[in-house]
Structure formats: C-alpha cells, structure tokens
Amino acid sequence: MERHYVGSEIGQLRTVLLHRPRLSLQRLTPSNCQELLFDDVLCVERAVEEHNQFAQLLRDQNINVLLLSELLTETLENPHARKWLLEAQLSDYRLGPTFAQPLREWLGEMPADALSRYLTGGLTWQEIPESLILQRITPQAHSPFITRPLPNHLFTRDTSCWIYQGVSINPMAKAARQRETDNLRAIYRWHPLFQGNHYINYYGDEERRYDHATLEGGDVLVIGNGAVLIGLSERTTLQGVEFLATSLFQHHQANKIILVELPKHRSCMHLDTVMTHLDHDTFSIYPEVIQPNMPCWVLTPDGQGSITHQSPRPLVKILEEVLAVTEIRFITTGGDIFESEREQWNDANNVLTLRPGVVVGYDRNLRTNEKYDKAGITVLTIRGDELGRGRGGARCMSCPIERDGLEGNR
C-alpha cells in the first residue's frame, strides 16, 4: 500500500504527479490564450519534448512519476466515477438539460482514454454527432468549444497539494482552472491508488460554491516540523487559508501557519514563484518581493477548534525557530536588476527540490543557477523555452504525493 505523506519541501522526493500536455496546448490560439491564462501560444511538440525530459530526469533520480491523464483514464473505468465526473463537468446548469443529458450519454459510452482526453483537452462542436447539435434549442455559441481545454493542468502543484498526512483539493480562483478540481476529486475518490488508503481530505472535496475562499498549491510550502508557509496572493485568499488551517489543526497535522503577503499581480502569482526551500537552512528568494525582515502573520490553534491570529513578526525569525537553525541563508535571484527581473519571470526561483541541496530548474536561468552552484546547491537543469512560457517552473509542474520529512521520516 502506498503511503501518501509529504513532510517537507526538501526531504527525499519519492512520488510525484505530473501532467504531460498535448491536446490542451494544441487548442491554445492567439485569440484564446489570454482567457486560458497563457501569455502566448506554445510550440506543442517542443513543449511535450521538454516535459518528457523533465519526467525522465525525475525517473533517473529514482522518483516514481505518476501522470495525471493516465490516472484519470484508470479512474474513468469506474462507472460511478464516470457518471459523477460527467455530471460535474457537463451539468444541466452549464449546458441546459435538453442538451446536457444526451451529451453525457454519448460521452459515457466512450472508452476511458478518449473520455479522459476530452475532459482535459476540451470538447468542440465539430467533435460531437450532428444529431446532438440538433437537440439544442438555441443556436450554438460563437466559441468553438462546448467545454474549454484545461492547459493549466500542466501545473499539477496548484489543483491539489499534499500536506503531511493529507491533501487539500483546492478551489481555484480563476474560472479557466476550476474544472481541474473536479478531475482531481474523481481521481482521489475512485482511483485504486487512493481508494482505501488512509489519508485526510483537508479542504475542497465537497461540492459547494467556495466563493472567495480560494486556495492554490503554488502558495503552499510544507516547510516541516508541523509548520506550513502560505502566500496570500492573487489566487489564494485569507478566507481559503483559514478553512485549510482550521482543518489542519483539527486533524493535528500542523501547529503553525505562516502567512506571507504578496503583491496581487501575475509576475508573482504564487509564493513559489518568488521563494522556494532548497536545503535545511537555505531558501531562494526574489528580493523585490521577499525580504528576510518582512512582517509575517502566524495562525495557531486556539485549543477550542478555531484559530488564533498572532501579531506579525519578521519572516527570518519565524523560519529560524521553525527549522531550528541558527541562521537562514537566502539566495537572491541572479544578475543585475534587469537580469534578475527576467529570470524571476522565467521561474528561476521556482525550482523543485529532490532532496536537500539538489534541485531541478530551467537551464535558461544562467545567473541564478550560478548563484545556486556557488552556494553549494546542485541544479539539475531541463530545457524550458516552451514550457516556461506558461509561467511555471519545475515546482509548478509537479505535485509531490510522497516526500520525506526534514529528518528523513516517512
């Protein structure tokens, strides 16, 4: 039986979830990429090649790589999962009952791999039988899509994040990503890898309108010793954090939530785009946003099932206490002010730590990678000329499911 446990950001990484993009990227165009949260269209073949290189590097490091599309396909072999997910993605309220019901019936007869492809890559009017189009009372919309593609599934870190002995299945902030959560709900509920295993669902698994209580995994750093560092960003709100914190405390999985206030703009959409944990006492930071002495708030349990907001204290002092180290090293983004800004934009700070002092990052971030190397951090590089244009690095593209704690415990 797999043990799903993530005890830190730097302990030995053992199992990780990735998503290899193809159809969803093929359907990115200059006219729709902005609403799908991409800055530009990508060369699909090169992006897939770069992603394959990333996955193979992890396998070469003896890390078990799971692929989301394969897990989803296997999940859809379960008729209960298939029925639930079709009703969630293609509800009567989304499409109207006279169209939604026959469309679900048509899709429900598909092989699991074909259905998985549509649930991640989107479904167009040209791909359904003409008889279904005739059942619509109103003319078809101007959009070519019945359901839009989900190219941001590439960034598996965000939609769900594992924290100690459980998972948060995250209510996403942007409409373009909200259907991703349903795919992850189905996988965690029905896939044999997770069914029957003992783990906690902290937040986001209920079918409800979460309104402003949004949360994304790129803002969540499990720094160990019962502490979680969370960014309040354009995607993660205090409301969402409070719900997650309450659940973590009630399940005795965390004793401290450290809150970092971030600017609400795209260049630092998540905490991990400006700060990651590299080694026991070492973090990378983008100094235009993260300062060692910046005030941070701490949430702790109040002993009565709720939470207490403590007065703000300097980030560096909190980290030193939590990690039980005498001094924290901060490695800033490399280069002059222009190079530093470019490399942060290209995810120089968004590296994936495989084990203490060994990280994966894009080879294009030369100045920052040089600083990591001089500080004793080994950088295993991958190409990211196409993948990086989606504004996400190795950490964004990976969801750890099994990772050791700070002392190597599992």
UniProtKB/TrEMBL annotation:
What the entry lists under Pfam families is as follows:
ADI
The places in or outside the cell where this protein is found are:
Cytoplasm
Instruction: Give the top-rank taxon of the lineage listed in the UniProt record for this protein.
Output: Bacteria
Q: What is the first-listed, main subcellular location in coarse terms?
A: cytoplasm
The record lists the catalysed reaction(s) as: L-arginine + H2O = L-citrulline + NH4(+)
Instruction: Copy the pathway line from the protein's UniProt record.
Output: Amino-acid degradation; L-arginine degradation via ADI pathway; carbamoyl phosphate from L-arginine: step 1/2
Among its keywords, does the record have DNA repair? no
The entry lists its GO molecular-function terms as: arginine deiminase activity
**Which parts of the chain span the membrane according to its record?**
none
Q: Hydrolase: present as a keyword of the record?
A: yes
Alphabetized, the UniProt keywords read: Arginine metabolism, Cytoplasm, Hydrolase
Catalytic residues in the record: 396
Enzyme Commission number: 3.5.3.6
The UniProt family comment states:
Belongs to the arginine deiminase family.
Indicate what this protein is called per its UniProt record.
Arginine deiminase
Q: Which organism is it from?
A: Rosenbergiella australiborealis
